[in-house]
């Protein structure tokens, strides 16, 4: 039975509507808001606009910007319009000390180096047009077969050779009742990387006042096309002190996972996690059973929630006391444990990223869905609006 595309909505998320309302205000309103902001407590930063700074140049010489979002409690997120990459995320530990919990680089050149392009970790990037793998770089839609670039052995991964992670997005900083935001837009043209249709994509990052990073995805198309948008942040909740993430305790509310072949393409089987090292329905340290999984964790879990926002994962790091709660309206989540990091990349502050230096929790539809008719549908059609929201909320446990 084909399951409908769960993330097709006809309405924009509330945060986006609030952002649009803010942008549509008249000059006198803006001036009044600015005056009020000037008189407010300097720590109440959500009424001010995010700031931007140069972040280097892309390979073709385009100037790249880095945008900083802050909230009233001192949390900070930096995002570049190159690939929509989340480059840093500062949140407090159990002692109130701020620390960066994502892997990345200090300049855009780090995301374009030969070593980075060879290893292809996709640090912090927006992923599309289709996140995860498509078998054989091919799919058939409405009787026509489309051929994609093979950039992961025999398969297509994360949109192809030049996916959304490697393009320049149009950026508009803004604010809403939830906090400072950054709206990114990109037109993926018909035929780009082999996909049909002109796809208009909007992604809004919001750093909320309760230390959550909210990501709203919206897209429309003029031809039917598969779509699977996600973010590829690598987290380490004790980043800078802990060299790997094996001590992090993870909970994933999923009773099944998608079994994969040797090239990480789903076989179509949704196997129960009970009695296997894939059972994270109760908390387990990442390193506790990882040796039982050839190559490490790099699989899609079938989340128990349906349609609306539901729990996708919870992570606790005992040393720092930091916690992360992930919610989404997507049907799956890819849990990846940095198995292919090998120490060849040096990131922020001279940190070397070795094996298991970070983990990913990519909210998504299932891998290879265009070739798996029993998986939740990923085809977006003209006249429909794709809309999905994922939230990464940070806290502490003392």
Q: Any overview of this molecule?
A:
The chain is mainly beta. 7% of the residues lie in helices and 38% in strands. The chain has helices at 14-23, 27-39, 114-119; strands spanning 51-57, 63-70, 76-80, 86-92, 98-100, 126-127, 133-134, 138-141, 144-147, 156-157, 170-175, 179-188, 199-208, 212-221, 225-226, 230-231, 249-251, 254-260, 266-272, 284-285, 298-303, 310-316, 322-328, 332-336, 345-346, 352-353, 360-364, 379-380, 386-396. The strands form eight sheets. It has a nine-stranded antiparallel β-sheet, with helices on one face. Strands 1-2-3-4-5 form a five-stranded antiparallel β-sheet, with no helix packed on it. A hairpin with a 5-residue loop joins strand 25 and strand 26. The longest helix is centred in the first third of the chain and has 13 residues, at 27-39. It is globular, with a radius of gyration of 20 Å. Residues 6-46 have low confidence and may be disordered.
Summarize the helices and strands and which ones pair or pack.
Elements: H1 14-23, H2 27-39, E1 51-57, E2 63-70, E3 76-80, E4 86-92, E5 98-100, H3 114-119, E6 126-127, E7 133-134, E8 138-141, E9 144-147, E10 156-157, E11 170-175, E12 179-188, E13 199-208, E14 212-221, E15 225-226, E16 230-231, E17 249-251, E18 254-260, E19 266-272, E20 284-285, E21 298-303, E22 310-316, E23 322-328, E24 332-336, E25 345-346, E26 352-353, E27 360-364, E28 379-380, E29 386-396
Antiparallel strand pairs: 1-2, 2-3, 3-4, 4-5, 6-16, 7-10, 8-9, 11-12, 12-13, 13-14, 14-29, 15-28, 17-20, 17-22, 18-19, 18-21, 21-24, 22-23, 23-29, 24-27, 25-26
